[in-house]
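pinging the channel bc i need a second pair of eyes. not urgent but kinda urgent?? the chain im working w is below, pasted from the shared doc
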Amino acid sequence: IAAYFVYSFFNSSKRKDKEEKQSVVLMEKIRAVCKFITVEGDFSEIYHYQNVKDKWVNLFLGSKKALILIEAKAHVGFDLTKIKMNSDVEKKTIYLSNFPQPELLTIETDFKYYDKKEGWANPFTSTDLTEINREAKQHIVDKVPQSGLFGEASNQALSTVALMENLVQTIGWKLDYKALETAAQPQLKDKNESKAI
């Protein structure tokens, strides 16, 4: 009985040490994130995969082919931690001098395999499937800039600034973003000229 209690005591202390170490690791991985999603886009693509790395191996062992239906949801917005701001305590004003460019914040993907063919001695492995999923996801990521989502997110930038202005006003301060408006004027002028042409 005494041996059981001694064993239980040391075992519980080890468990506490392990839990404390795990909590420290988790705390180290937590970091401040302030990202604002303004545009969401849905993608549906068919991705064709064929293993053509080694023709001689494919000839003797059989080739691997697959059609993958990729359904993805891309979220585009702004990383607000990149905003440059200066404050004037006496005037109770925050000066916004730089606004980040829109970027792909997250992408959710779902893969469905169709017409999956394997060689008689060249089957799909877990490594192959992982690599196919990675390539298929990258295929969607490469499509995002061509989709117009970044342009739509840029149009939503002013709405984002307006939201920040409302938040600042709740604490009795003002948000000055004249620098952003001045920087945006040449771009608006170019857009108006291109429309006139």
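so Residues 14-27, 183-197 have pLDDT under 50 and may be disordered. and Residues 1 and 7 are 10 Å apart (CA to CA). — does that match what u expected or am i reading it wrong
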